[in-house]
Amino acid sequence: MKFSKKTSSLLIILFLACTISISTNEALANPPSITDMNYDSSTNTLSVSFSHIVDNPSSHYIESVEIKVNGEGVLTKTYTSQPGNSFTYEYTIEANSGDTIEIIAICIISGQDSDTLNIEDTTDGDNGNGGQNGDVTIPGFIGLGLISMLSIGILAFRSYIRKNNRNESSKSHYRQ
Questions:
Q1: Distance between CA atoms of 85 and 107, rounded to whole angstroms?
Q2: Theoretical Cys-Cys bridge with 36: which of 40, 49, 67, 137, CB 3.0 to 4.6 Å?
Q3: CA-closest candidate to residue 99, choices 68, 77, 140
Q4: Residue of 157, 169, 145, 37 lying closest to 95 (CA atoms)
């Protein structure tokens, strides 16, 4: 099926616009980050500070926080919004000296972060990568958008090469 240049250009622009609009929500989705953790053994209070920069905290937020002590789940809290881009939640849990507390924060749209705190030193047990769990993924729509744009670029380049080859061929025909 052959399309005119105008129709082909319009189809490419329409496809790119659809791809970009679909990708926008995923591009804005970012994983939460655990920035600080402290445990007060006198009150059994675990304080966890989060950073999760979002445009609308009522639709894009940390959906759940799971707390494990020595690998066993002791508390899971679910949320329907978040109070801001940086905030601290407090949880009442029992832990003893020598215990390890693991916190897992899960975004409702995309990604999660986890970190651990060893009770013996009660300092941030950051896993060595700034609170990021190292699971870097390209969300589905962004991956699809990148593949689509790369494919369009290859097709455009191929079309350009063919056009130049035809022009060179016709020029050499007139020279003879």
A1: 13
A2: 49
A3: 68
A4: 37
Instruction: Label residues 71-81 b or e (16+ Cβ within 10 Å = b).
Output: eeeeeeeeeee
Q: From first to last of the 176 residues of the chain, give the pLDDT tens digit.
A: 566 777 777 677 777 766 665 554 444 567 899 999 999 999 999 999 999 999 888 899 999 999 999 999 999 999 999 999 999 999 999 999 999 999 999 999 989 999 999 997 444 444 433 444 444 444 555 566 667 777 787 877 777 777 777 666 666 555 55
**CA of 174: how far to CAs of 19, 61, 85, 162, 168, in Å?**
44, 67, 68, 19, 10
CATH of domain 31-118: 2.60.40.10
Query: Element (H or E) spanning 100, and its range?
Result: strand 100-107
* One-letter-per-residue 3-state SS of 106-172: EECCCCEEEEEEECCCCCCECCCCCCCCCCCCCCHHHHHHHHHHHHHHHHHHHHHHHHHHHHHHHHH
Boundaries of every domain in the chain = 5-26+140-175, 31-118
Pairwise CA distance, residues 176 & 171, whole Å: 9
- Which strand (E) or helix (H) includes residue 81? none
